[in-house]
What we know:
Layout: H1 3-21, H2 28-47, H3 65-92, H4 100-127
Helix pairs in contact: 1-2, 3-4
Amino acid sequence: MGLFSCLQKHLHLHANVLIERKPTNMKKIPALSIAIALLLCTSASKAGCVINEPPAIPDGATATAQQMEEAQKLVKDYLALTQDYLACLEFEGKGKPNGPLTALYNQQTEKMERLASDFNKQLKVFKSK
């Protein structure tokens, strides 16, 4: 993924969040979004390491068995892709222990753990119905 398409993807995601949250200070948000997207895109894309956003987790209280099964497959696939992404970051970041790729590695590890935890919570809710 090139720098332009990476920026476009991240800015589109931030725009969706802005529309949903309707922040009070709209002037500061676009600049912050651009800065975050630029940092993420330049560091990872220079390394050639790319990962998509994690899948949405259905609400276990209202989800069907099919939705939970599909979500489980998506989560497992995403976690496998994340392992490849982390390996890429690790390879590209060798010799630079405190570089920007280390921060991306740590952020993605936390995101992966949070996704698994969120899915397990919703699965528990689903099974308790």
